[in-house]
């Protein structure tokens, strides 16, 4: 994969994580406690898979585009 491809795929992965986080916020406002806990687990598992099975592969080849690594260095 080229660096441009990696950046595009990273951006999609990060947006997917953001959308899942938004879903969790909605569930917290509108669902029962049992539903919230089940949704929280699903969101957590999904985010974990995106991180491990997509983003980490991209960052192995292009560590300089790691969105979290770069953010931590800015703080």
* N-to-C CA distance: 30 Å
Mean pLDDT: 92
Low-confidence regions? none
Classify the oligomer.
single chain
Give the amount of beta strand, in percent.
under 5%
Largest sheet: none
Helical region count? 3
- The global form is elongated
Please estimate the helix content: over 70%
Topology (SSEs and partners):
Layout: H1 3-30, H2 33-61, H3 67-74
Report on the architecture of this protein:
The chain has helices spanning about 5-30, 35-60, 65-75. The protein is an all-alpha fold. α1 runs antiparallel to α2. The longest helix is centred in the middle third of the chain and has 29 residues, at about 35-60. The radius of gyration is 15 Å and the shape is elongated. The mean pLDDT is about 90.
What's this entry about, in short?
This protein is an all-alpha fold. Helix content is 87%, strand content 0%.
Please tag this protein with its features.
87% helix; mainly alpha; single chain; 3 helices; 75 residues
């Amino acid at each position: 994969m080229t660096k441009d491809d990696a950046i595009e795929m990273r951006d999609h992965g990060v947006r997917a994580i953001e959308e899942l986080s938004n879903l969790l916020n909605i569930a917290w406002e509108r669902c029962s406690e049992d539903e919230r806990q089940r949704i929280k687990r699903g969101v957590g598992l999904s985010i974990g898979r995106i991180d491990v099975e997509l983003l980490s592969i991209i960052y192995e080849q292009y560590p300089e585009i790691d969105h979290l690594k770069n953010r931590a260095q800015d703080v």
